[in-house]
TrEMBL record:
Belongs to the LDH2/MDH2 oxidoreductase family. It comes from the Bacteria. Keywords: Oxidoreductase. SUPFAM superfamilies: L-sulfolactate dehydrogenase-like (SSF89733). InterPro entries: Mal/L-sulf/L-lact_DH-like_ah (IPR043144), Mal/L-sulf/L-lact_DH-like_NADP (IPR043143), Mal/L-sulfo/L-lacto_DH-like_sf (IPR036111), Malate/L-lactate_DH-like (IPR003767). This is Ldh family oxidoreductase. It holds the Pfam family Ldh_2. GO terms for molecular function: oxidoreductase activity.
């Protein structure tokens, strides 16, 4: 059975689902765009896979369908908002649009957000910024979540805390979205659901033994930071960096007792940079082209694939799937079907 669908039909169906769950049309469209963008680039655990969660939060009142974020600080080149559980993709899009509107004046605009309902895939926000000619750095954390251990420890302390970055290039941007843990929680949950082992031993059980069993996480174990059992001190340090940027700068996080009840709500750090504020756009692109050439022309072992420039594969997949249709992970439509029936919204038919 085909799992390929046209991007426009997917986006419209998901927009209609969110409208049926109580969002206004413009906000529903933003959520649909962000979730679809993730699947366009192959981030299948944090794209349309997240739609059922967000529908449930809206219907249960865990997400606010209406209202605006509260402005806690605003100095032009920086701002801090309390989203108070507004839908994450909509709040982050608003923050990025605000930053992009200000960056021609300031060159660099930085923002933090607190209590934003789960924002899903960071990579999904990058194309809009990089296509406008800007570079963007983002990270987020989940104050109520503890899944990732510190190096040498067993106790889960941090959330997976991705870092994402994009900068304009020649034929494709530099582009990546990586968690500060060996794997993300979404992949652990998928493996457990499907009764599969992890692709590598990336977890610790509650006795501190390294394992590939995804059930270890639910039994008091943890995901190891980047670097794993031998070099995880690097990932653990980066986990702390992301929590400082997203929580400490925003003034809300693990020190607040109320944060333990925030569920999957995120703290967010984002920074939009105009390369033209530092040098000419032409100079910047020349440097980017040189970096891309260094990577892609690097020597490899005989028979090995060429070195990939970060982002090329996702960018080319996005272009292809916009034309040929989006190849969804098989479980996504299965999970959307009950919501389609409940809310009376038709889902698209797969392409032949």
């Amino acid at each position: 059975m085909s799992h390929r669908y046209t991007a426009t039909e997917l986006q419209q169906s998901v927009t209609d689902l969110f409208c049926a769950a109580g969002l206004s049309g413009d906000r529903a469209q933003v959520l649909a765009e962000v979730f679809l963008e993730a699947d366009l680039m192959g981030f299948s655990t944090h794209g349309l896979n997240r739609v059922p969660h967000n529908l449930r939060w809206l219907l249960d009142g865990d997400s606010r369908a209406q209202g605006e974020p509260e402005v806690l600080a605003d100095r032009g080149a920086l701002f801090n908002w309390d989203a108070n559980f507004l839908p994450g993709p909509w709040v982050v899009r608003q923050a990025l649009d605000t930053a992009m509107a200000r960056v021609p004046e300031h060159g660099v605009v930085t923002a933090t957000l607190r209590r934003s309902q789960h924002i899903a895939c960071l990579a999904a926000y990058l194309p809009r910024v990089v296509e406008a000619g800007y570079a963007v750095l983002m990270t987020c954390s989940t104050p109520a979540e503890n899944t990732v251990s510190a190096f040498g420890g067993i106790t889960p302390l941090f959330s997976a805390n991705p870092i994402a970055f994009a900068a304009p290039g020649e034929d494709c941007p530099l582009f990546f979205d990586i968690s500060m843990s060996v794997t993300a929680g979404g992949y652990v949950a998928r493996a457990q659901r499907e009764g599969k082992a992890m692709a590598e031993p990336c977890l610790k059980n509650n006795r501190g033994e390294v394992t590939d069993d995804p059930a270890a996480l639910d039994e008091g174990g943890s995901i190891m930071p980047i670097g794993g059992a031998s070099h995880g001190y690097k990932g653990a340090a980066l986990s702390l960096l992301t929590e400082v940027l997203s929580m400490a700068l925003g003034g809300y996080g693990r020190a607040d007792a109320s944060a333990a009840g925030d569920g999957e709500a995120n703290s967010v750090f984002l920074q939009v940079m105009d390369p033209g504020a530092f040098t000419s756009p032409e100079n910047f692109r020349q440097q980017m082209a040189a970096l891309q050439q260094l990577c892609e022309q690097s020597a490899v072992a005989e028979g090995a694939p060429p070195v990939r420039f970060p982002g090329r594969r996702a960018w080319e997949l996005r272009r292809r799937q916009l034309v040929e249709g989006v190849d969804l992970y098989p479980s996504i439509m299965t999970d959307l079907a009950p919501w389609s029936e409940r809310l009376g919204v038709a889902l698209p038919s797969p392409l032949a």
